[in-house]
């Protein structure tokens, strides 16, 4: 079995919602985040199996999960649900998981889709994947050596083996 370095390879981000989950995947150089898909939730077991397939198919070495932080910088009930969900996911996949602030990404994703001329159903079908891409791009940008500032957000690595 080959050891996989979580500092190399593709990263997958999840924008967790109660009904839909946005998925984005980076390129292998961890430079560009691309919206991948929107998963309609049915059960955690089905979700986790879907992620496991994506991890295997795309050679994912790190998962970034959007963590909802309030504008006041606090974690609420929604963040607790995300952390619980991630803990369950960590029991089903060996890929390291980190959290990243997802504040206002859905608003930004909706605005970006509107700027592209998309409306209604076109927005609803893609907004979660675009939000996941925004979360992932923010994470990737912050990891670049030139982005390391004292005020930069740091990832919160969890569930690593």
From TrEMBL:
It comes from Candidatus Promineifilum breve. Could be a nuclease involved in processing of the 5'-end of pre-16S rRNA. Pfam families: RuvX (PF03652). Keywords: Cytoplasm, Hydrolase, Nuclease, Ribosome biogenesis. NCBIfam families: RNAse_H_YqgF. Residues 9-109 form the YqgF/RNase H-like domain. Belongs to the YqgF HJR family. GO terms for biological process: rRNA 5'-end processing. One of its GO terms (molecular function) is hydrolase activity, acting on ester bonds. This is Putative pre-16S rRNA nuclease. It is found in: Cytoplasm. CDD domains: YqgF.
């Amino acid at each position: 079995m080959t050891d996989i370095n979580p500092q190399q390879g593709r990263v997958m981000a999840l924008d967790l919602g109660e009904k839909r989950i946005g998925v984005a995947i980076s390129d292998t150089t961890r430079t560009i985040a691309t919206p991948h898909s929107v998963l309609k939730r049915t059960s955690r077991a089905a979700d986790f199996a879907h992620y496991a397939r994506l991890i295997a198919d795309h050679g994912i070495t790190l998962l970034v999960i959007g963590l909802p932080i309030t504008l006041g910088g606090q974690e609420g009930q929604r963040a607790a649900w995300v952390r619980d969900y991630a803990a369950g996911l960590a029991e089903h996949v060996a890929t390291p998981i980190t959290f990243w602030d997802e504040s206002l990404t859905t608003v930004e994703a909706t605005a970006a889709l509107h700027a592209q001329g998309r409306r209604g159903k076109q927005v609803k079908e893609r907004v979660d994947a675009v939000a996941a891409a925004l979360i992932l791009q923010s994470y990737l940008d912050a990891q670049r050596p030139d982005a390391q500032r004292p005020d930069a957000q740091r990832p919160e690595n969890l569930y690593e083996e």
